[in-house]
Specification:
The chain is of the alpha+beta class. The protein folds into two domains: about 1-135, 2-Layer Sandwich (Fructose-1,6-Bisphosphatase, Chain A, domain 1); about 145-255, 3-Layer(aba) Sandwich (D-Maltodextrin-Binding Protein, domain 2), CATH 3.40.190.80. Helices cover about 30% and strands about 25% of the residues. It has helices spanning about 1-20, 40-55, 85-90, 160-170, 185-190, 205-210, 210-220, 250-255, and strands at about 30, 40, 60-65, 70, 75-85, 100-105, 110-115, 120-125, 130-135, 135, 150-155, 180, 200, 220-225, 240. The chain has an eight-stranded mixed β-sheet with strand order 4-3-5-6-7-8-9-10, sandwiched between helices. A five-stranded mixed β-sheet has the order 12-11-13-15-14, covered by helices on one side. α1 packs antiparallel against α2, α4 packs across α8 (about 250-255) and α5 (about 185-190) packs parallel to α7.
Length: about 260
């Protein structure tokens, strides 16, 4: 099957990215991009390694990468790459970043990998299949009420003032004593494995979230925008992940209570 071939390719991409990243962990200096976010030689080396493989094995597919932009394809399929999601954590020596690899077809992610190359942890999500963590199935956990939910976000400083008010309205309805700050894509991996209940973010780009959707949803969770609508290429960047889909309406209602 074509999808099985794509899965094998995605694993090779993750292997290549990890090999490019590991020598620089806790050793790489960083510089700032035009938007002031950090970037390292590891980010660029990992994306370069993945693009080199795709150029040979999927020359008709498009490539959308955080570091080197978009290469148009002719197949209607695009590989979406974030070589290090969580560069700030990577620079700080924290192994909570991840390489994100997604295959997007007709605007929707159909395959996603979250790879943590230092801890050798890998989540694979494929539409219609159970999410695997290092080859074994994982599941999200049930959450019977929003007040019992463990909420995570990368950090409050990533929200605008307006979005921050809506986030705090949601936070006020959850178990604030278990709120998690920091973690980037690793939060979604932890949600897929049943350790968190809700992740809420804004201002995400396609490369930030495309790989997460098949991973979360293949584990029994759901991803949506802040209105509860499915994510697709062109979505606003307001992203929710829930381990228990039954809480989606509660989360959307809580967010709407922000001023």
């Amino acid at each position: 099957m074509k999808l099985d071939s794509d899965i094998a390719l995605a694993h090779r991409l993750a292997d290549a990215a990890g090999a490019a990243i590991r020598p620089h962990f806790r050793a790489a200096a960083f510089e700032r991009k035009g938007d002031a976010t950090p970037v390292t030689v590891a980010d660029r080396a990992a994306e370069t390694a993945m693009r080199a493989i795709l150029a040979v094995e999927r020359p008709a597919d498009g490539v959308i990468g955080e570091e080197f932009g978009t290469t148009e394809g002719t197949s209607g399929r695009s590989w979406v790459l974030d070589p290090i999601d969580g560069t700030t954590g990577f620079v700080a020596g924290r192994p909570l970043f991840g390489t994100l690899i997604a295959l997007v077809v007709d605007g929707f992610p159909v395959l996603g990998i979250i790879d943590q190359p230092i801890l050798h942890e890998r989540w694979l999500g494929v539409v219609g299949r159970a999410t695997l963590f290092n080859g074994q199935p994982v599941r999200t956990r049930a959450c019977t009420a929003l007040v019992e939910a463990a909420l995570a976000t990368t950090g409050p400083h990533y929200f605008s003032a307006h979005d921050g008010e809506h986030f705090m309205a949601l936070a006020g309805e959850t178990d604030h004593k278990r709120m998690v700050m920091g973690g980037d894509c690793y939060n979604y991996a932890m949600l897929a494995s049943g350790h968190l209940d809700v992740v809420c973010e804004s201002n995400l780009k396609l490369h930030d979230w495309a790989a997460l959707v098949p991973v979360v949803e293949g584990a029994g969770g759901v991803m949506a925008d802040w209105h509860g609508e499915p994510l697709r290429q062109g979505s606003s960047g307001h992203v929710l992940a829930l381990g228990d889909p039954a809480r989606l309406e509660d989360v959307v209602a809580a967010l709407a209570c922000g001023h």
